[in-house]
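tool=predict chain=A
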Amino acid sequence: MPQIDWLSHLLQMMPVTGCVEVRCVYGTPWRIAFAQSALYEIPYHVVLQGSAVIEDPETGTARELVAGDIVLLPHGSAHVLHDGTGHMPGRTYRRQVSAGWMLRDNDGRGEQLDMLCGRFFIGPPHDRLIRNYLPKTLMVRATNGRGEPGIDSASHHLANLVRMMRIESADERPGGHAILNGLTLALFTLALRAASESEQAPAGLLALAAHSRVAPAISAMFANPARPWNLPDLADLCNMSRATFVRHFRDKLGRSAIELLTDIRMSMAANELRKPGLSTEFVADAVGYQSVAAFRRVFTDKVGMGPGQWRRLAREGE
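tool=predict ok
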């Protein structure tokens, strides 16, 4: 079957918005601590110039970021960014820029850092697809480590995008803040694409999508989730035995293909239930359930409330 653009299907199902909040222009020494983000928020950082160390206070693990690196925290985890010297940071200043975001600088006279910080927003219940299928920390590079990236690669597009974000954040020109916020969706999408194209794609959906042998099953589930897929059907699409298919899914995703299919269906159902005039019976059938009782049971288990309650809350929120 033809390859389906699974990433576009995912983002159509799970709308993402975002904003740039702060531009940090620091000289060493410096240190910034970020608390656990609110539900449905994904913090991100784009290193425009210089370097930084991102540290997970829970595990004590640290990783260096250099110019062109983009890091996303899909689970909204608390984290610390610092210069790596271990020196006590001096005073930090901040001012509101007329374009709508904050500029922070300090008294440091050492190596300069230029970094954009912001967050993405994903509405319920689609955050489950993020928490369950993306890693705790996702880092991508706008270069491949071997010079300039190929012109058709996601890394090349990311490099151009980061360059544009740097230009727009450097001056308070008309529309600058709106342009920066508009670029955040492209940043999110390209980061996921670049990670899935990487030779070391992180565990989860990105690693699975990068696995050419199981990609047909991913495409099929996103393209036609209402179809009554079973493991033999999905394995046949990938020219694998059922046992081999199950092993590949478990190794890369940590979950079964049917679990992923169910989560896709429930995200679709949540979107359909927002629409006026569509009954629960119609939505159940549209996402592949002939039994309304079975649909209600699965939806309640995955979303934490029944379809009727979700419909009311979603419409009140709108």
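The longest strand covers residues 16-27. The radius of gyration is 21 Å.
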